[in-house]
UniProtKB/TrEMBL annotation:
InterPro entries (UniProt xref): DUF6545, MAB_1171c-like
A family per Pfam: DUF6545
Keyword tags: Membrane, Transmembrane, Transmembrane helix
Protein name (record): MAB_1171c family putative transporter
Membrane-spanning segments: 6-25, 32-51, 66-88, 100-121, 141-161, 173-191, 211-233
């Protein structure tokens, strides 16, 4: 793949994530990632030929180089803020009083001021807005300021990311942090080529810098996209679990309305409910558990004894879930028939998880058994 098509693919991918993850602006941590992608996407936009031609019509030479560099400063600063945030560094001071943000503002001001001086004084520049070696002008100040700030911030970010990498256990987040660390290391190499370019005119350095900067762009894009899309993926997984529990949950809530915080709605209506997917799933887990505790009051010792032999042929890993689904169907049938509560409340809800995740796995097994023809056949064979 040639360079321009690759840039276009990266640009499309970046702006797709930006648009899809606009809701991330509501979260402090996700907001940082979103703005990193926004500035990265803006920088990549500067490299597209149509945008370059549009900027040429402004009659300001090398304006695209200034804008790209300012966006790079923004990406580096936000990436450092993100690295410090995930590492647990709490910021007590407001943004306008944080030293690194003040340094960022000073860097941007110096870069803009020296750029205007270069344009006003018509100081000659090489390709990629590089200064002429052996001279010291406003152009040199521009590059020294930019490179000094970027080297310090990028190195700081790399150290923070590597330290956090050892503490990250989630596979997707670990990969994201690793990619950001690799991108940071690649950018340090790129900055090294730019430092060397201040003293030599060899064309090898800009070419090497172009490829290394592409590695940096890909690492930042993929790493931030993984982190940005992870909440969306988690929401999809939560919705999937909720849909697998839906039939069991709805039946229990309709049979015992007081266990439900809100009356159950249709499957599609529940799917389209604009609430936090994790909160909704946790609520379903709690309400199913409460429903099981209530429904056991309609199971008699004789019915439970009849269920035991009926599930003897069920594989051991499914037996307890099938037994639970069976007594629950028996209890629902008894309640619907108007039978009174059993004289003795049996201890039937002792299985389950020690935390929300293990409880979810247990209820998923019950829900799967609840829907199975095996359980319906076993319950129909039992005396009413």
């Amino acid at each position: 793949m040639s360079f321009d098509p690759l840039r276009l693919v990266l640009l499309i991918a970046c702006w797709t994530v930006i648009l899809v993850r606009i809701p991330a602006l509501r979260s402090a941590e996700q907001r940082l990632i979103w703005f990193i992608l926004l500035l990265l996407g803006g920088g990549m936009l500067m490299l597209q030929n149509p945008v370059g031609k549009l900027i040429e019509h402004t009659a300001v030479p090398n304006l695209d180089s200034l804008l790209s560099s300012l966006m790079a400063v923004g990406v580096a600063t936000l990436l450092l803020s993100l690295a410090l945030h995930v590492a647990g560094k709490q910021e007590s001071r407001p943004p306008w009083r944080r030293p690194r943000l003040l340094c960022c503002g000073a860097t941007v001001a110096i870069m803009i001021g020296t750029f205007v001086a270069v344009d006003t004084l018509k100081i000659p520049a090489r390709t990629r807005f590089l200064p002429i070696p052996g001279t010291f002008t406003a152009h040199t100040v521009y590059w020294v300021t930019y490179l000094l700030y970027m080297l310090v911030v990028t190195a700081w970010t790399g150290v923070a990311l590597l330290r956090h990498l050892r503490k990250t256990s989630h596979p997707a987040l670990r990969l994201a942090v690793l990619l950001l660390a690799v991108a940071t290391a690649a950018f340090l190499i790129f900055l090294g080529t730019r430092v060397a370019s201040l003293f030599t005119t060899t064309p090898l350095l800009p070419t090497l810098g172009k490829y290394v900067s592409s590695l940096h762009t890909i690492g930042i894009l993929v790493g931030c996209s993984l982190a940005a899309l992870l909440p969306l993926w988690r929401a999809v997984v939560n919705i999937w679990h909720g849909q697998r529990l839906y039939a069991l949950w709805k039946t229990l809530c309709e049979a015992i309305p007081h266990v439900a915080l809100q009356p159950p709605r249709g499957r599609i209506a529940e799917l389209l409910r604009f609430t936090d997917s994790r909160l909704r799933l946790n609520r379903m887990i709690i309400e199913i558990r409460d429903g099981l505790l209530v429904m056991r009051e309609w199971v008699t010792p004789a019915q439970l004894a009849a269920i035991g032999p009926a599930v003897e042929g069920v594989p051991e890993d499914r037996a307890e879930a099938v037994r639970t689904a069976c007594w629950l169907k028996v209890a629902l049938r008894a309640k619907e028939s108007g039978h009174p509560r059993a004289a003795e409340t049996l201890d039937l809800v002792y299985h389950g998880g020690v935390d929300i995740e293990s409880e979810l796995r247990w209820l998923r097994r019950i829900a799967a058994a609840w829907r199975s023809p095996t359980v319906s056949r076993l319950v129909n064979a039992l005396p009413a």
